[in-house]
Amino acid sequence: MRTVVVKVGTSTLTAGGTRLNRRRMLEIAQQIVHVREQDVRVALVSSGAMAAGRERLGIERPNPRAPLPHKQMLAAVGQSYLMALWEQVFGMFEVHVAQVLLTRADLSDRRRYLNARETLRTILDHHIVPIINENDAVTTEEIRVGDNDNLSALVTNVLGAELLLILSDIEGLYTADPRRDKNATLIQEVAVIDDRIRALAGGSGSLGVGGMATKIQAAELVTRAGATMIIAHGARPNVIVDAIAGVAVGTRFLPAVSPLESRKRWILAERPNGAFVADDGAVRALRNGKSLLPVGVREVIGQFERGEFVAVRDLQGREVARGITRYSAHDAARILGKRSDQIVKTLGYSYAPMLIHADDLVLL
Ligand code: GLU
After folding, report:
1. 241 and 314 inside one domain
2. Which of 266, 322, 321 is nearest to 113 (CA)?
3. Ligand 1 within 6 A of 136 CB?
4. Contacts (Cβ under 8 Å, ≥6 apart) of 335
5. 194 and 301: one domain?
C-alpha cells in the first residue's frame, strides 16, 4: 500500500489570518479521507500549535522575541486545542486521529527510532490518521528539529513513505522571489538539488517557522532516501488529492536514488556490531525475501542493542546479509532456535516475530 506524508504549515492552517481556519482544516481532513479510500495511507504533520495557543489566550500578534519558555507555553496550550479541532473535523468522517509528538532525539537514537516507526506503522495499520508535531513544550534547542519541514522529512524517511507533500502559502519554488520580481516563474520539477537550487531559497516572511530554505533541506533528506517531495499552495482546491494522483501541482523534487538503493546504502554504510549465525534453511529463506526468524539462528556473536546493524553469517562463516536487528544480543541469545510464538513466553515480551525484518535486510 502507498504511504504519503502531508505537512501543513501554520500559514496554511490559518489561511493567512491569525486564527486557525476551521474551513481549511475541514478541507484538509476531507481530502485525506478521500485518498485513504483509495488505499493510500496518510500521516499528517501539523504545525499551528503556537498559533492555536495564541488564539486560545487571546494574543493577537506573534512576538518573535518572546523567551523560549513563553513560546513553549503557547505550544502547550495550543497543541491540545489543535488536536481537539483535528478530532472534530476528522470525526465528521468517522476517522480516528492519534497525536504523536516527536523530537530529534526520538528519531536519531536507533532504539527510539524503531519504536517511533513501529508506533506510527501500527497507527496507520489501524486506519487511524497520525497527527505529528514537534514536542515543543519540552524540547530545548539541542534536541529539537526546529521546523516542521525537516520534521516531516524525517517522518517520511522513518515511514519509508513514497511522497512528502508540503502545503504552504507559496505555490512552490520560483526562479526568483515572486513577491519582489514579477518575472519570477514557478519551477515545476527539480531533478537534482544543487547550489543553484539552494541559492533560490530565500527567507520566510509568514507566520510559520520554516521558509524555502528549510523546505529545500527537507527535499534533500527525502529525495536522497528515494522518495518524492512536492511543495504546493495549501489553498489550491483539491491539492492533496491531485498531488497524490500525480497531477502536476507546485514544485516536484524527484527521488535521487531508488528507495531500495537508498536503504541498501544506509544499511551497508556502517560496520555491523555483531552477527547472527543462520542455518541453511534460514539462509535460503532470506534469499527468497523472507525475514530472519529466531528458529533459524544457531548462534549470536558480539554485543549489540535493538536497532543496531548486525551481520548474518552462514554456517561456514560467510557474511550473507546485513540488517537492523529487532532484538539485543542478550535477548536474541535467549530466543535463538525457538519458534516465534515462544518469544513472549521466554522474554516476557515481544517486539516482533523476527530478529531482522525483510524490509531491514540487504543480501550480499
Ligand atoms: N511546531 C510548531 C508549531 O506547531 C511549528 C513549527 C513549524 O511550523 O515549522 O507551532
Report:
1. no
2. 266
3. yes
4. 294, 327, 342, 343, 346, 347
5. no
Q: Indicate the top mutation candidate among 77, 80, 136 to test ligand 1's pocket, ranked by most ligand atoms within 8 A of CB.
A: 136
Residue nearest to ligand 1 atom 2, measured at CA:
47
| Model pLDDT, residue 203 | 46
- 73 with 152, same domain? yes
324 and 184, same structural domain?
A: no
| All three cell numbers of 9 | 504549515
360 lines ligand 1 (CB under 6 A): no
Rounded Cα distance, 113 and 95, in Å: 26
* Domain limits for position 203: 2-262
Cell numbers placing 154:
524525517
186 and 284 assigned to the same domain:
no
Facing residues of 313 across strands? Answer: 277, 319
The tally of domains found in the chain comes to 2
CATH number of the domain residue 145 falls in? 3.40.1160.10
pLDDT band at 263 (very low <50, low <70, confident <90, very high): confident
On the 0-12 / 13-18 / 19+ scale of CB atoms within 10 A, 63 is exposed
Tell me, what's the pLDDT at 105?
Answer: 85
pLDDT at 207 over 80: no
For residues 280 and 230, state if they share a domain.
no
Q: Is the pTM of this model over 0.90?
A: no
Q: Cell 524517511 belongs to which residue?
A: 157
Any atom of ligand 1 within 6 Å of the Cβ of 53? no
Write out pLDDT tens, residues 215-253: 999 999 999 989 999 999 999 999 999 999 999 999 999
Please write the tens of the pLDDT for every residue from 42-83.
999 999 999 999 999 999 888 889 898 999 999 999 999 999
Phi-psi region of 305 (alpha: psi -120 to 50; beta: other; left: phi over 0): beta
**Per-residue pLDDT for 204 more than 50?**
no
Are 199 and 297 within one domain?
A: no
C-beta of 228 in contact with ligand 1 (< 6 A) = no
Q: Which of the listed residues 19, 47, 73 should we mutate to test ligand 1's pocket, taking the one with most ligand atoms within 8 A of CB?
A: 47
